Amino acid sequence: MHPTDFIYVVESKRGVREALVSVWKTAMAAGWTVVGDYDLTSLLVASGSPKEIKSIDICRPELARPFVGAEMLTALCMPCSVLIYSDNGVTKLAAMRPSVVMPKLFEKATQAVGDLAEQVDHELKDILEKAK
């Protein structure tokens, strides 16, 4: 499996900070809750590097509850993290695709909740597309 099989990435014309704000606002407008956001730049990148790395955790509880009800350990994949970073001067927004990841990790739980992973996947993709 290649990373592009389970990760959705879009390019943004915004700077990293502006893209973070856009993801925040877009997620909230779509009925998602922002659980937290993190500036990973100083933690992960060598001092003086021009790269910026931010992460925002978002959740839509009514979509998460059935997974946790089917299998508590699915909460390890929650909330959904969106990575916002600069790559050669281009801002990118990235998130894992629950419709691909969840069946690999939690096959029985995913079967129990039907097409819910696809719905989460669709909503995440929509948030990233609108936020870019």
From TrEMBL:
Residues 52-98 form the DUF302 domain. It comes from Fraserbacteria sp. (strain RBG_16_55_9). InterPro entries: DUF302 (IPR005180), TT1751-like_sf (IPR035923). Pfam families: DUF302. It comes from the Bacteria. This is DUF302 domain-containing protein. CDD domains: DUF302. Transmembrane segments: none annotated.
